[in-house]
Amino acid sequence: MCFSATASFSAGIVLTIIGVSSIKKVQHRSQRMFALIPFIFAIQQFSEGFLWLSIPNEKWSYLQTGITYFYLIIAQIIWPVWVPVAILLLEKEKTRKKTQRLLVAIGIAVSLYLTYCLLHFNIRSEIDCYHIAYIQTYPEPFRVMGGLLYIIATILPPFFSHIRRMWWLGVMVLISYIVTTVFYESYLVSVWCFFASVISLSVYLIMSEIRISHREEIYLKKAIEQN
């Protein structure tokens, strides 16, 4: 996230509150992964807050490498799989499930490739112009294709969901990605995660809709049984 450690920790606290509210809306175990999205963003923001503290402080410098890898594991390995799987678990329509499974497969491929990169190439983080820059020496030929597949795995799933307002999530993440790419390209990993974490509020709104739909289904079943 850009700006400061204070901003990162503040975002983490807000996201934790949103996460608690989202979890309270869960009525079935298939909804848990989706409801936990704000919590994962919160963990990211807290970790980057500590990164802000460790980079300029010699007493904390020994933590920098570990926190950098921890942050990137969430951003580049967990997210490409978590998002499509979480939305697949919510899906009820067979045709849409096939599409969601394809997106999960793409997410797994991206995650495996980025895992390989994290293990075999040099990575470091530094503060640059009030932002944290993640310096990753990944192979250039695969950077564009890898980025495209990452976008497909993390942004497209909401658009193929049967849930009426799930597209909100996709639109907001897409807009945040475009804004970040245009204005903060050198700090994409950090700043996009900040914008994406802010829009986690849409997760709570979607969970509220799922809860209402679930109640309507129960009411309809009872009405049919009584008749």
UniProtKB/TrEMBL annotation:
It holds the Pfam family DUF6629. Keywords: Membrane, Transmembrane, Transmembrane helix. The keyword Transmembrane applies. The chain crosses the membrane at residues 6-23, 35-55, 67-90, 102-121, 141-160, 167-183, 189-207. It comes from the Bacteria. InterPro entries: DUF6629 (IPR046737). This is Histidine kinase N-terminal 7TM region domain-containing protein.
